[in-house]
Design goal:
The protein is an alpha/beta fold. The chain folds into 2 domains: 30 residues; 108 residues, Spore Coat Polysaccharide Biosynthesis Protein SpsA, Chain A. A 4-stranded parallel β-sheet has the order 3-2-1-4. Strand 2, helix 3 and strand 3 form a beta-alpha-beta unit. The longest helix has 29 residues. The chain starts with a helix and ends in a 5-residue tail after the last helix. InterPro entries: Glyco_trans_2-like, Nucleotide-diphossugar_trans. Keywords: Membrane, Transmembrane, Transmembrane helix. It comes from Tumebacillus avium.
Length: 146
Amino acid sequence: MLALFIWGFALYGIFVALWNAVRFLAQKNRRGVPVTAILVVREGASYIEGILRTLTTAEPFCGRELDVVVVDCGSRDETAKIVESIAQKRGTVRLVRAESDDPAQALPAVFGSKGRSVHCVFDLRGKVSPLEVVPTLAAFWSDETV
């Protein structure tokens, strides 16, 4: 009876080890796909620092590489200075200045910079709430996404 009990635990241990090995290999494969968050802003000094600090702080825990590109559409407040300050400390954040109010001219250079990447574009010029950026990107970071 004791021998059956020991064999049962041994089989359970082997099954758990195989399951964890498969999950590890699947997660390792997913980590190769970086996420690029493109934030289109104008006059965003009131919220951009909070978003960037949250994203750059959460990056080491998500298991994927995160690049944040802030496209500034002619802000007259401190938005550009805030982004440049954070970009100097974090290599994953960069600022792209759009020549006009239309960011479409600056986006082709952003999309062409990474080979295999998931791009998330957020237009924060009044159409999307800044509170939706981090939860939406968290969905891209989760293990359920391929």
